[in-house]
Amino acid sequence: MAGRKRSKLIQCLGVFALMLLLVPASIAQKKAPAKKPAPVSELEKLRQQYVESTKEYKASLERLLVLYEKSVTKANERLEKSKQLLADGLISRTELSSSEEAVNAAHLKVAEVKSQMASADTQIAQTLVEVESEKQIAKLKISPGTGLVRTTSFIRFNGSGSWLLGESGKIESFFQQTFHRPLPIAVFGQGAIHNQWRLDHRNAMDISLHPDGPEGQALINFMQRNGIPFSAFRGAIPGVATGPHIHIGRPSHRY
């Protein structure tokens, strides 16, 4: 009889131990699955590829710059020798001029590469500025009718709908009646600077007003009341804004 009781007790202990082993596994199965990272949009992928390609391009320019700077050193050395040979009467003035031209050509190549490197930096900067401003808007979950973003460098208002450059008369009339002078339009539609920076500015205009000044504030308030989209810049942003101004219309996207 005692043997049967011990046998049952051992069986019970075995079942209990098995339950203890299975419970953690069942709890683990009930845990919420790990969150997957948010998918990257095609536009974001293109931007990342663009920035990486531009960085690689700049790196190749840096290697080329080293070679061109060596060429400048060698050209200067040849020029110094030519000057000495001319002083000794061993070469003509024409031959010295050729050495001087070689030095100038070498310096021009260096200057050109440095300019291209600076351009690459600007392209990266303007892409990152564009991305950062859109990220801020996305974080704030702005609706088209009421969206307003303020940062230390710019203000952006999404407006209540599409706006056409042909509707500028309403804005010009408001400014003329309020301040008794014409609206200071710097660029109406596509300008040379926008072509240089590859910005589509065909349906927008730039106003030469500081957004924090009394006239700028009055204009901004008027556009907000009327649902007119705008971007106001407090200072220069490489590849985006040359200085303080108010851009009326949708943001100019790069092409």
Describe the structure.
- The structure is a single chain.
- The chain has a six-stranded antiparallel β-sheet, with helices on both faces.
- Helix content is 60%, strand content 9%.
- The protein folds into two domains: 42-140; 148-248, no CATH class.
- The chain is α+β, with helices and mostly antiparallel strands.
- The chain has helices spanning 2-30, 42-87, 93-140, 168-179, 192-197, 214-225; strands at 148-150, 154-157, 185-188, 205-207, 230-233, 245-248.
Précis, in short:
This protein is an alpha+beta fold.
Distance between the termini: 92 Å
Global outline: elongated
Q: What portion of residues is helical?
A: 55-70%
Q: What is the tally of beta strands?
A: 6
What string, H for helix and E for strand, traces the elements in order? Answer: HHHEEHEHEHEE
Low-confidence stretches: 20-28
Instruction: Using the CA coordinates, give the radius of gyration.
Output: 34 Å
Strand residue percentage: 5-15%
Oligomeric nature of the chains? single chain
> Treating each run of at least 4 consecutive H or I residues as one helix, how many helices?
6
Secondary-structure-derived class: alpha+beta
Strand order of the largest sheet: 1-2-5-6-4-3
What's the story with the biggest beta sheet? 6 strands, antiparallel
Mean pLDDT: 75
Q: How many distinct folded domains?
A: 2
